[in-house]
Protein backbone atom coordinates (compact mmCIF):
# COMPACT_ATOMS: atom_id res chain seq x y z
CA UNK A 1 0.00 0.00 0.00
CA UNK A 2 2.92 2.30 -0.53
CA UNK A 3 1.01 4.12 -3.25
CA UNK A 4 -1.37 5.43 -0.56
CA UNK A 5 1.32 7.31 1.33
CA UNK A 6 0.14 9.14 4.45
CA UNK A 7 -0.69 12.73 3.50
CA UNK A 8 -0.09 15.56 5.89
CA UNK A 9 -3.14 15.78 8.16
CA UNK A 10 -1.80 18.66 10.20
CA UNK A 11 -4.16 21.12 8.48
CA UNK A 12 -6.93 19.32 10.36
CA UNK A 13 -5.20 19.57 13.73
CA UNK A 14 -4.39 22.85 15.40
CA UNK A 15 -0.66 23.11 15.72
CA UNK A 16 -0.57 23.88 19.43
CA UNK A 17 1.96 21.75 21.30
CA UNK A 18 -0.46 20.94 24.12
CA UNK A 19 -3.17 18.44 23.40
CA UNK A 20 -6.51 19.18 25.01
CA UNK A 21 -9.32 17.41 23.18
CA UNK A 22 -10.88 20.60 21.83
CA UNK A 23 -7.84 20.93 19.56
CA UNK A 24 -9.32 18.28 17.30
CA UNK A 25 -10.99 19.66 14.22
CA UNK A 26 -13.38 17.62 12.13
CA UNK A 27 -13.73 18.01 8.36
CA UNK A 28 -16.78 20.17 7.55
CA UNK A 29 -18.22 17.45 5.27
CA UNK A 30 -18.91 15.38 8.38
CA UNK A 31 -21.97 17.50 9.10
CA UNK A 32 -23.51 16.62 5.73
CA UNK A 33 -23.44 12.85 6.31
CA UNK A 34 -26.71 12.76 8.20
CA UNK A 35 -29.22 11.05 5.91
CA UNK A 36 -29.74 7.63 4.39
CA UNK A 37 -29.19 7.19 0.67
CA UNK A 38 -32.01 5.59 -1.28
CA UNK A 39 -32.74 5.68 -5.00
CA UNK A 40 -29.92 8.10 -5.64
CA UNK A 41 -30.78 10.72 -3.03
CA UNK A 42 -30.79 11.64 0.66
CA UNK A 43 -33.65 10.20 2.69
CA UNK A 44 -34.68 10.59 6.36
CA UNK A 45 -36.35 7.86 8.40
CA UNK A 46 -40.12 7.88 7.89
CA UNK A 47 -40.59 8.05 11.66
CA UNK A 48 -38.09 10.89 12.01
CA UNK A 49 -36.19 8.83 14.62
CA UNK A 50 -32.44 9.39 14.95
CA UNK A 51 -29.38 7.69 16.44
CA UNK A 52 -26.34 9.52 17.82
CA UNK A 53 -22.92 9.44 16.17
CA UNK A 54 -20.03 9.58 18.66
CA UNK A 55 -16.29 10.05 18.43
CA UNK A 56 -14.98 7.10 20.50
CA UNK A 57 -11.81 9.00 21.45
CA UNK A 58 -13.80 11.74 23.19
CA UNK A 59 -17.21 10.09 23.70
CA UNK A 60 -18.71 13.32 22.33
CA UNK A 61 -21.81 13.26 20.11
CA UNK A 62 -20.67 14.58 16.73
CA UNK A 63 -23.77 13.99 14.63
CA UNK A 64 -26.92 11.96 14.15
CA UNK A 65 -28.31 9.50 11.62
CA UNK A 66 -31.76 8.23 10.69
CA UNK A 67 -32.92 5.19 12.64
CA UNK A 68 -34.56 3.19 9.87
CA UNK A 69 -37.60 1.03 10.52
CA UNK A 70 -38.86 -1.96 8.53
CA UNK A 71 -40.84 0.36 6.26
CA UNK A 72 -37.71 2.38 5.38
CA UNK A 73 -35.91 -0.88 4.59
CA UNK A 74 -38.85 -2.02 2.50
CA UNK A 75 -38.65 1.22 0.51
CA UNK A 76 -34.92 0.74 -0.10
CA UNK A 77 -35.33 -2.88 -1.23
CA UNK A 78 -38.18 -1.89 -3.55
CA UNK A 79 -36.04 0.84 -5.12
CA UNK A 80 -33.18 -1.63 -5.55
CA UNK A 81 -35.64 -4.13 -7.06
CA UNK A 82 -36.85 -1.56 -9.58
CA UNK A 83 -33.25 -0.72 -10.44
CA UNK A 84 -32.73 -4.41 -11.28
CA UNK A 85 -35.05 -3.83 -14.22
CA UNK A 86 -33.11 -0.77 -15.32
CA UNK A 87 -29.95 0.02 -17.15
CA UNK A 88 -27.31 -1.46 -14.86
CA UNK A 89 -27.51 -5.18 -15.61
CA UNK A 90 -28.08 -4.47 -19.30
CA UNK A 91 -25.07 -2.23 -19.75
CA UNK A 92 -22.30 -3.63 -21.90
CA UNK A 93 -19.76 -5.31 -19.61
CA UNK A 94 -17.10 -2.82 -20.64
CA UNK A 95 -19.30 0.13 -19.69
CA UNK A 96 -20.16 -1.47 -16.36
CA UNK A 97 -16.47 -2.07 -15.69
CA UNK A 98 -15.68 1.56 -16.50
CA UNK A 99 -18.11 2.76 -13.84
CA UNK A 100 -16.61 0.44 -11.23
CA UNK A 101 -13.10 1.67 -12.11
CA UNK A 102 -14.41 5.22 -11.85
CA UNK A 103 -15.71 4.50 -8.34
CA UNK A 104 -12.21 3.28 -7.42
CA UNK A 105 -10.67 6.41 -8.89
CA UNK A 106 -13.03 8.69 -7.00
CA UNK A 107 -12.45 6.88 -3.71
CA UNK A 108 -8.71 7.50 -4.15
CA UNK A 109 -9.36 11.12 -5.12
CA UNK A 110 -11.30 11.60 -1.89
CA UNK A 111 -8.96 9.39 0.14
CA UNK A 112 -8.07 12.13 2.62
CA UNK A 113 -11.70 12.79 3.50
CA UNK A 114 -12.58 9.07 3.66
CA UNK A 115 -9.57 8.50 5.91
CA UNK A 116 -10.46 11.26 8.35
CA UNK A 117 -14.09 10.19 8.54
CA UNK A 118 -13.18 6.57 9.15
CA UNK A 119 -10.70 7.58 11.84
CA UNK A 120 -13.19 9.83 13.62
CA UNK A 121 -16.01 7.29 13.40
CA UNK A 122 -14.12 4.08 14.30
CA UNK A 123 -11.27 5.55 16.35
CA UNK A 124 -8.54 3.83 14.37
CA UNK A 125 -5.19 5.50 13.61
CA UNK A 126 -5.11 7.60 10.43
CA UNK A 127 -2.58 5.45 8.62
CA UNK A 128 -4.65 2.33 9.30
CA UNK A 129 -7.80 4.06 8.05
CA UNK A 130 -5.89 5.22 5.02
CA UNK A 131 -4.89 1.67 4.28
CA UNK A 132 -8.55 0.58 4.52
CA UNK A 133 -9.56 3.28 2.04
CA UNK A 134 -6.88 2.11 -0.37
CA UNK A 135 -8.18 -1.44 -0.05
CA UNK A 136 -11.73 -0.24 -0.70
CA UNK A 137 -10.65 1.33 -4.00
CA UNK A 138 -8.64 -1.76 -4.91
CA UNK A 139 -11.72 -4.00 -4.51
CA UNK A 140 -13.55 -1.93 -7.13
CA UNK A 141 -10.64 -2.14 -9.56
CA UNK A 142 -10.21 -5.88 -8.99
CA UNK A 143 -13.88 -6.74 -9.59
CA UNK A 144 -14.19 -4.21 -12.44
CA UNK A 145 -11.60 -6.39 -14.14
CA UNK A 146 -13.92 -9.38 -13.87
CA UNK A 147 -17.09 -7.87 -15.36
CA UNK A 148 -16.27 -8.96 -18.92
CA UNK A 149 -14.94 -12.37 -17.81
CA UNK A 150 -18.07 -13.80 -16.22
CA UNK A 151 -18.16 -16.66 -18.66
CA UNK A 152 -20.22 -19.83 -18.60
CA UNK A 153 -19.48 -23.29 -19.96
CA UNK A 154 -20.64 -25.45 -22.82
CA UNK A 155 -21.66 -29.01 -22.03
CA UNK A 156 -21.72 -31.61 -24.86
CA UNK A 157 -24.95 -33.64 -24.97
CA UNK A 158 -24.53 -35.57 -28.25
CA UNK A 159 -25.00 -34.79 -31.91
CA UNK A 160 -28.32 -32.88 -31.87
CA UNK A 161 -28.30 -30.91 -28.67
CA UNK A 162 -26.02 -29.10 -26.28
CA UNK A 163 -26.19 -27.05 -23.13
CA UNK A 164 -24.46 -23.85 -22.19
CA UNK A 165 -24.49 -21.91 -18.96
CA UNK A 166 -24.82 -18.19 -18.36
CA UNK A 167 -24.24 -16.35 -15.10
CA UNK A 168 -27.30 -14.29 -14.16
CA UNK A 169 -27.30 -11.72 -11.35
CA UNK A 170 -29.04 -12.96 -8.18
CA UNK A 171 -31.06 -9.73 -7.81
CA UNK A 172 -31.03 -7.37 -4.84
CA UNK A 173 -28.15 -8.15 -2.50
CA UNK A 174 -28.19 -7.17 1.18
CA UNK A 175 -24.97 -6.22 2.96
CA UNK A 176 -24.95 -6.12 6.74
CA UNK A 177 -21.64 -4.81 8.00
CA UNK A 178 -19.83 -4.58 11.38
CA UNK A 179 -18.04 -1.57 12.82
CA UNK A 180 -14.39 -2.56 12.77
CA UNK A 181 -13.56 -2.16 9.04
CA UNK A 182 -16.57 -0.28 7.64
CA UNK A 183 -15.36 1.01 4.28
CA UNK A 184 -13.23 -1.96 3.27
CA UNK A 185 -15.87 -4.52 4.31
CA UNK A 186 -18.64 -2.75 2.40
CA UNK A 187 -16.50 -2.59 -0.73
CA UNK A 188 -15.29 -6.19 -0.33
CA UNK A 189 -18.87 -7.42 -0.84
CA UNK A 190 -20.46 -4.59 -2.79
CA UNK A 191 -17.90 -4.52 -5.62
CA UNK A 192 -18.34 -8.19 -6.67
CA UNK A 193 -22.12 -7.86 -6.33
CA UNK A 194 -22.24 -4.83 -8.64
CA UNK A 195 -19.74 -6.47 -11.01
CA UNK A 196 -22.22 -9.32 -11.49
CA UNK A 197 -25.01 -6.86 -12.39
CA UNK A 198 -26.89 -6.87 -9.07
CA UNK A 199 -28.30 -3.95 -7.13
CA UNK A 200 -27.70 -3.56 -3.41
CA UNK A 201 -28.92 -2.33 -0.04
CA UNK A 202 -26.22 -1.78 2.57
CA UNK A 203 -26.87 -1.61 6.34
CA UNK A 204 -23.67 -0.37 7.97
CA UNK A 205 -23.11 -0.78 11.70
CA UNK A 206 -24.94 1.80 13.81
CA UNK A 207 -21.65 3.03 15.32
CA UNK A 208 -19.86 3.51 12.00
CA UNK A 209 -22.07 4.43 9.04
CA UNK A 210 -20.38 7.61 7.81
CA UNK A 211 -17.89 6.29 5.26
CA UNK A 212 -20.60 4.14 3.66
CA UNK A 213 -22.78 7.21 3.19
CA UNK A 214 -19.90 9.06 1.58
CA UNK A 215 -19.28 6.06 -0.68
CA UNK A 216 -22.92 6.05 -1.79
CA UNK A 217 -22.62 9.63 -3.03
CA UNK A 218 -19.44 8.81 -4.86
CA UNK A 219 -20.98 5.86 -6.66
CA UNK A 220 -23.67 8.15 -8.05
CA UNK A 221 -21.10 10.73 -9.18
CA UNK A 222 -19.15 7.92 -10.84
CA UNK A 223 -22.14 7.03 -13.00
CA UNK A 224 -23.83 4.22 -11.09
CA UNK A 225 -27.56 4.57 -11.84
CA UNK A 226 -29.86 5.71 -9.02
CA UNK A 227 -31.22 2.82 -6.96
CA UNK A 228 -28.32 0.46 -7.68
CA UNK A 229 -26.61 1.18 -4.36
CA UNK A 230 -28.76 2.14 -1.38
CA UNK A 231 -27.84 2.67 2.26
CA UNK A 232 -30.15 2.31 5.25
CA UNK A 233 -28.84 3.34 8.65
CA UNK A 234 -30.09 2.24 12.04
CA UNK A 235 -30.07 -0.54 14.57
CA UNK A 236 -29.33 -4.18 13.84
CA UNK A 237 -32.44 -5.61 15.44
CA UNK A 238 -34.63 -3.17 13.48
CA UNK A 239 -33.12 -2.23 10.10
CA UNK A 240 -30.71 -5.20 9.92
CA UNK A 241 -33.37 -7.74 10.78
CA UNK A 242 -35.88 -6.24 8.32
CA UNK A 243 -33.27 -6.37 5.56
CA UNK A 244 -32.18 -9.96 6.24
CA UNK A 245 -35.76 -11.26 6.15
CA UNK A 246 -37.02 -9.14 3.23
CA UNK A 247 -38.51 -11.38 0.51
CA UNK A 248 -37.14 -9.09 -2.20
CA UNK A 249 -33.51 -9.89 -1.32
CA UNK A 250 -31.67 -12.52 -3.37
CA UNK A 251 -28.48 -12.82 -1.32
CA UNK A 252 -27.51 -11.72 2.19
CA UNK A 253 -23.83 -10.97 2.80
CA UNK A 254 -23.49 -10.77 6.56
CA UNK A 255 -20.29 -9.89 8.41
CA UNK A 256 -20.45 -9.75 12.18
CA UNK A 257 -20.66 -11.83 15.31
CA UNK A 258 -21.64 -15.49 15.52
CA UNK A 259 -24.91 -15.00 17.36
CA UNK A 260 -26.11 -12.29 14.99
CA UNK A 261 -25.03 -14.51 12.09
CA UNK A 262 -27.26 -17.31 13.39
CA UNK A 263 -30.15 -14.88 13.69
CA UNK A 264 -29.59 -13.51 10.18
CA UNK A 265 -29.46 -17.03 8.74
CA UNK A 266 -32.81 -17.84 10.35
CA UNK A 267 -34.28 -14.53 9.14
CA UNK A 268 -33.20 -15.26 5.55
CA UNK A 269 -34.56 -18.82 5.68
CA UNK A 270 -38.14 -17.92 4.76
CA UNK A 271 -37.16 -16.29 1.48
CA UNK A 272 -34.42 -18.93 0.88
CA UNK A 273 -32.04 -16.13 -0.06
CA UNK A 274 -28.44 -17.16 -0.57
CA UNK A 275 -26.21 -16.25 2.36
CA UNK A 276 -22.57 -15.72 3.21
CA UNK A 277 -21.61 -15.49 6.85
CA UNK A 278 -18.26 -13.94 7.76
CA UNK A 279 -18.18 -14.30 11.51
CA UNK A 280 -15.79 -14.14 14.41
CA UNK A 281 -12.49 -15.78 15.18
CA UNK A 282 -10.13 -16.86 17.92
CA UNK A 283 -7.15 -17.32 15.72
CA UNK A 284 -3.89 -18.94 16.86
CA UNK A 285 -0.39 -17.71 16.13
CA UNK A 286 1.84 -20.73 16.69
CA UNK A 287 5.57 -20.36 17.30
CA UNK A 288 7.72 -23.49 17.24
CA UNK A 289 11.14 -23.73 18.89
CA UNK A 290 13.14 -23.25 15.66
CA UNK A 291 11.26 -20.09 14.58
CA UNK A 292 12.84 -16.75 13.69
CA UNK A 293 11.64 -14.99 16.83
CA UNK A 294 11.90 -11.43 15.55
CA UNK A 295 9.79 -12.35 12.55
CA UNK A 296 7.29 -14.03 14.85
CA UNK A 297 7.13 -11.00 17.17
CA UNK A 298 6.22 -8.78 14.22
CA UNK A 299 3.34 -11.12 13.32
CA UNK A 300 2.16 -11.46 16.92
CA UNK A 301 2.18 -7.72 17.68
CA UNK A 302 0.54 -6.76 14.41
CA UNK A 303 -1.93 -9.63 14.74
CA UNK A 304 -3.31 -8.59 18.13
CA UNK A 305 -2.73 -4.84 18.47
CA UNK A 306 -3.56 -3.63 14.94
CA UNK A 307 -6.92 -1.77 15.06
CA UNK A 308 -6.70 -2.30 18.85
CA UNK A 309 -7.40 -6.00 18.37
CA UNK A 310 -10.81 -5.35 16.81
CA UNK A 311 -10.19 -7.61 13.85
CA UNK A 312 -12.02 -10.85 13.09
CA UNK A 313 -8.61 -12.33 12.18
CA UNK A 314 -6.86 -11.06 15.32
CA UNK A 315 -4.14 -13.48 16.41
CA UNK A 316 -5.60 -13.56 19.89
CA UNK A 317 -4.09 -16.88 21.06
CA UNK A 318 -0.31 -17.30 21.13
CA UNK A 319 0.65 -20.99 21.08
CA UNK A 320 4.33 -21.16 21.98
CA UNK A 321 6.88 -23.91 22.53
CA UNK A 322 7.98 -24.02 26.17
CA UNK A 323 11.67 -23.75 25.25
CA UNK A 324 11.27 -20.25 23.78
CA UNK A 325 8.41 -18.99 25.96
CA UNK A 326 10.44 -16.53 28.07
CA UNK A 327 12.54 -15.11 25.26
CA UNK A 328 9.54 -14.62 22.96
CA UNK A 329 7.32 -13.07 25.64
CA UNK A 330 10.07 -10.65 26.65
CA UNK A 331 10.21 -9.39 23.07
CA UNK A 332 6.41 -9.18 22.73
CA UNK A 333 6.09 -7.25 26.00
CA UNK A 334 8.87 -4.85 25.00
CA UNK A 335 6.84 -3.97 21.91
CA UNK A 336 3.45 -3.92 23.64
CA UNK A 337 4.58 -1.50 26.33
CA UNK A 338 5.97 1.03 23.86
CA UNK A 339 3.00 1.25 21.50
CA UNK A 340 1.76 4.82 21.24
CA UNK A 341 -1.91 5.34 22.17
CA UNK A 342 -3.83 8.48 21.25
CA UNK A 343 -6.68 9.98 19.23
CA UNK A 344 -6.68 8.33 15.80
CA UNK A 345 -6.22 11.71 14.13
CA UNK A 346 -2.78 11.93 15.81
CA UNK A 347 -1.90 8.69 14.00
CA UNK A 348 -0.67 6.69 17.00
CA UNK A 349 -0.03 2.94 16.83
CA UNK A 350 -3.27 2.28 18.73
CA UNK A 351 -6.45 4.34 18.97
CA UNK A 352 -9.44 3.80 21.26
CA UNK A 353 -11.85 0.89 21.07
CA UNK A 354 -14.98 1.68 19.12
CA UNK A 355 -17.12 2.58 22.16
CA UNK A 356 -17.28 2.63 25.94
CA UNK A 357 -19.47 -0.47 25.76
CA UNK A 358 -16.76 -2.32 23.90
CA UNK A 359 -14.13 -1.20 26.40
CA UNK A 360 -16.24 -2.46 29.30
CA UNK A 361 -16.68 -5.77 27.54
CA UNK A 362 -12.92 -6.16 27.02
CA UNK A 363 -12.16 -5.13 30.61
CA UNK A 364 -14.68 -7.69 31.85
CA UNK A 365 -12.85 -10.57 30.13
CA UNK A 366 -9.48 -9.47 31.54
CA UNK A 367 -10.80 -8.85 35.06
CA UNK A 368 -12.39 -12.31 35.19
CA UNK A 369 -9.15 -13.92 33.93
CA UNK A 370 -7.17 -12.07 36.62
CA UNK A 371 -9.65 -13.15 39.30
CA UNK A 372 -9.31 -16.76 38.11
CA UNK A 373 -5.53 -16.62 38.73
CA UNK A 374 -4.18 -16.04 35.23
CA UNK A 375 -1.09 -13.87 35.05
CA UNK A 376 -1.37 -10.43 33.42
CA UNK A 377 2.14 -9.90 32.03
CA UNK A 378 1.41 -6.40 30.78
CA UNK A 379 -1.63 -4.10 30.44
CA UNK A 380 -4.89 -5.27 31.91
CA UNK A 381 -6.31 -1.78 32.52
CA UNK A 382 -8.02 1.04 30.62
CA UNK A 383 -5.35 3.30 29.11
CA UNK A 384 -5.24 6.94 30.14
CA UNK A 385 -4.61 9.51 27.43
CA UNK A 386 -4.13 13.09 28.69
CA UNK A 387 -6.94 15.33 27.50
CA UNK A 388 -9.03 12.34 26.38
CA UNK A 389 -10.21 11.04 29.75
CA UNK A 390 -13.57 9.94 28.32
CA UNK A 391 -12.04 8.01 25.42
CA UNK A 392 -12.49 4.24 25.13
CA UNK A 393 -8.78 3.41 25.36
CA UNK A 394 -7.46 0.08 26.68
CA UNK A 395 -3.86 -0.99 27.30
CA UNK A 396 -2.17 -3.62 25.12
CA UNK A 397 -2.55 -6.70 27.29
CA UNK A 398 -0.82 -10.09 27.49
CA UNK A 399 -2.25 -12.83 29.72
CA UNK A 400 -0.07 -15.86 30.52
CA UNK A 401 -0.81 -19.26 32.08
CA UNK A 402 -4.16 -19.42 30.33
CA UNK A 403 -5.90 -22.81 30.36
CA UNK A 404 -7.09 -23.74 26.87
CA UNK A 405 -10.69 -23.99 28.05
CA UNK A 406 -10.71 -20.64 29.91
CA UNK A 407 -13.37 -18.11 28.90
CA UNK A 408 -10.72 -15.65 27.69
CA UNK A 409 -9.19 -18.35 25.48
CA UNK A 410 -12.48 -19.48 23.99
CA UNK A 411 -14.57 -16.30 23.57
CA UNK A 412 -13.81 -13.57 21.07
CA UNK A 413 -12.63 -10.60 23.20
CA UNK A 414 -12.31 -8.19 20.26
CA UNK A 415 -9.75 -5.97 21.94
CA UNK A 416 -5.96 -5.73 22.38
CA UNK A 417 -5.72 -8.86 24.53
CA UNK A 418 -3.38 -11.78 23.82
CA UNK A 419 -3.62 -15.10 25.67
CA UNK A 420 -0.55 -17.34 25.92
CA UNK A 421 -0.66 -21.15 25.74
CA UNK A 422 2.54 -23.14 26.25
CA UNK A 423 3.09 -26.48 24.47
CA UNK A 424 5.92 -29.00 24.40
CA UNK A 425 5.95 -30.27 20.81
CA UNK A 426 4.47 -29.60 17.34
CA UNK A 427 1.65 -32.14 17.77
CA UNK A 428 0.50 -30.44 20.95
CA UNK A 429 0.81 -27.12 19.14
CA UNK A 430 -1.64 -28.20 16.42
CA UNK A 431 -4.03 -29.59 19.03
CA UNK A 432 -3.91 -26.31 20.99
CA UNK A 433 -4.32 -24.23 17.83
CA UNK A 434 -7.40 -26.27 16.85
CA UNK A 435 -8.90 -26.14 20.35
CA UNK A 436 -11.57 -23.55 19.52
CA UNK A 437 -15.04 -23.50 18.05
CA UNK A 438 -13.81 -20.89 15.54
CA UNK A 439 -11.77 -21.51 12.39
CA UNK A 440 -11.11 -18.24 10.58
CA UNK A 441 -7.33 -18.04 10.13
CA UNK A 442 -4.20 -19.52 11.72
CA UNK A 443 -0.49 -18.70 11.67
CA UNK A 444 2.68 -20.69 12.24
CA UNK A 445 6.30 -19.61 12.59
CA UNK A 446 8.96 -22.28 12.00
CA UNK A 447 11.99 -22.79 9.74
CA UNK A 448 10.97 -26.42 9.18
CA UNK A 449 8.88 -26.45 6.00
CA UNK A 450 7.71 -30.01 6.73
CA UNK A 451 6.27 -29.01 10.11
CA UNK A 452 4.72 -25.90 8.56
CA UNK A 453 2.99 -27.93 5.86
CA UNK A 454 1.77 -30.52 8.38
CA UNK A 455 0.31 -27.66 10.43
CA UNK A 456 -1.38 -26.23 7.31
CA UNK A 457 -2.82 -29.66 6.53
CA UNK A 458 -4.14 -30.32 10.02
CA UNK A 459 -5.44 -26.92 11.04
CA UNK A 460 -9.16 -26.22 10.59
CA UNK A 461 -9.13 -22.63 9.32
CA UNK A 462 -10.00 -20.76 6.14
CA UNK A 463 -6.59 -19.13 5.71
CA UNK A 464 -3.20 -20.34 6.97
CA UNK A 465 -0.12 -18.12 7.17
CA UNK A 466 3.38 -19.59 7.28
CA UNK A 467 6.03 -17.16 8.58
CA UNK A 468 3.92 -14.05 7.84
CA UNK A 469 0.70 -13.61 9.81
CA UNK A 470 -2.12 -11.86 7.87
CA UNK A 471 0.02 -11.39 4.77
CA UNK A 472 -2.46 -12.70 2.17
CA UNK A 473 -4.09 -9.47 0.98
CA UNK A 474 -7.50 -9.05 -0.59
CA UNK A 475 -7.32 -11.19 -3.70
CA UNK A 476 -7.09 -14.43 -1.71
CA UNK A 477 -10.33 -16.27 -0.82
CA UNK A 478 -11.36 -15.58 2.76
CA UNK A 479 -13.88 -17.20 5.07
CA UNK A 480 -14.27 -19.46 8.04
CA UNK A 481 -14.43 -23.10 9.03
CA UNK A 482 -16.61 -24.12 11.99
CA UNK A 483 -18.41 -21.22 13.73
CA UNK A 484 -16.39 -18.62 11.83
CA UNK A 485 -18.97 -18.73 9.08
CA UNK A 486 -19.89 -20.20 5.75
CA UNK A 487 -19.07 -19.22 2.21
CA UNK A 488 -16.11 -17.21 0.96
CA UNK A 489 -15.45 -13.58 0.16
CA UNK A 490 -12.50 -11.92 -1.62
CA UNK A 491 -10.76 -13.15 -4.75
CA UNK A 492 -12.65 -14.81 -7.58
CA UNK A 493 -14.54 -16.99 -5.07
CA UNK A 494 -16.64 -13.98 -4.05
CA UNK A 495 -18.25 -13.81 -7.49
CA UNK A 496 -19.97 -17.15 -6.89
CA UNK A 497 -22.15 -15.51 -4.23
CA UNK A 498 -23.58 -13.01 -6.65
CA UNK A 499 -24.40 -15.09 -9.74
CA UNK A 500 -27.05 -17.67 -10.46
CA UNK A 501 -25.91 -20.34 -12.91
CA UNK A 502 -28.52 -20.77 -15.64
CA UNK A 503 -28.15 -23.82 -17.93
CA UNK A 504 -29.77 -23.49 -21.37
CA UNK A 505 -30.23 -26.60 -23.49
CA UNK A 506 -30.91 -26.43 -27.19
CA UNK A 507 -32.03 -29.19 -29.52
CA UNK A 508 -31.45 -28.90 -33.27
P1 LIG B 1 -22.66 -7.59 15.26
O1 LIG B 1 -23.02 -8.98 14.91
O2 LIG B 1 -23.15 -7.05 16.56
O3 LIG B 1 -23.20 -6.57 14.16
C1 LIG B 1 -22.87 -6.71 12.80
C2 LIG B 1 -23.94 -6.06 11.97
O4 LIG B 1 -25.16 -6.78 12.18
C3 LIG B 1 -24.24 -4.60 12.36
O5 LIG B 1 -24.53 -3.86 11.19
C4 LIG B 1 -25.48 -4.73 13.21
O6 LIG B 1 -26.28 -3.56 13.20
C5 LIG B 1 -26.18 -5.88 12.54
N1 LIG B 1 -27.15 -6.59 13.41
C6 LIG B 1 -27.15 -6.68 14.75
N2 LIG B 1 -28.22 -7.39 15.18
C7 LIG B 1 -28.88 -7.77 14.06
C8 LIG B 1 -30.06 -8.54 13.85
N3 LIG B 1 -30.76 -9.03 14.85
N4 LIG B 1 -30.45 -8.76 12.56
C9 LIG B 1 -29.73 -8.27 11.54
N5 LIG B 1 -28.63 -7.51 11.68
C10 LIG B 1 -28.20 -7.28 12.93
O7 LIG B 1 -21.09 -7.50 15.13
P2 LIG B 1 -20.17 -6.26 15.51
O8 LIG B 1 -20.08 -6.21 16.98
O9 LIG B 1 -20.61 -5.06 14.75
O10 LIG B 1 -18.77 -6.72 14.87
C11 LIG B 1 -17.89 -7.54 15.52
C12 LIG B 1 -18.02 -8.95 15.02
O11 LIG B 1 -17.85 -9.01 13.60
C13 LIG B 1 -16.91 -9.83 15.57
O12 LIG B 1 -17.46 -11.06 15.95
C14 LIG B 1 -15.96 -9.99 14.39
O13 LIG B 1 -15.16 -11.14 14.45
C15 LIG B 1 -16.92 -10.02 13.26
N6 LIG B 1 -16.24 -9.71 12.01
C16 LIG B 1 -16.05 -10.69 11.07
C17 LIG B 1 -15.37 -10.41 9.88
C18 LIG B 1 -15.14 -11.47 8.83
O14 LIG B 1 -14.93 -11.11 7.66
N7 LIG B 1 -15.17 -12.76 9.17
C19 LIG B 1 -14.91 -9.12 9.65
C20 LIG B 1 -15.11 -8.15 10.62
C21 LIG B 1 -15.79 -8.46 11.79
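-> sequence recovered:
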Amino acid sequence: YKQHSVPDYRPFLKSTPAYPMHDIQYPPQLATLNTMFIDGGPVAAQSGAQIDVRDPATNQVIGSLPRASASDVNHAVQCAGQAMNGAWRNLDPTARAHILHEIARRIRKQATLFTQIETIDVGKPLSQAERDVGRAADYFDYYAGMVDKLQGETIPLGRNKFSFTVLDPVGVTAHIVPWNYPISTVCRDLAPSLACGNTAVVKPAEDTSLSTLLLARITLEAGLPAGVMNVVTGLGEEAGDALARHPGVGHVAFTGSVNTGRHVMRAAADSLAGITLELGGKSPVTVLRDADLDLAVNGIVRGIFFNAGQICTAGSRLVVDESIHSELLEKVIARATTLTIDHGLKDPEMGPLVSQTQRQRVAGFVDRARAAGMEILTGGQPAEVPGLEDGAFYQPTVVDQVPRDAEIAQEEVFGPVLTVHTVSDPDEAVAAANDTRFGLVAGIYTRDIGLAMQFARDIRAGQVFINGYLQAGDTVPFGGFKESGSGRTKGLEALRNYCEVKAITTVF
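DSSP finds 15 helices and 22 strands in the chain.
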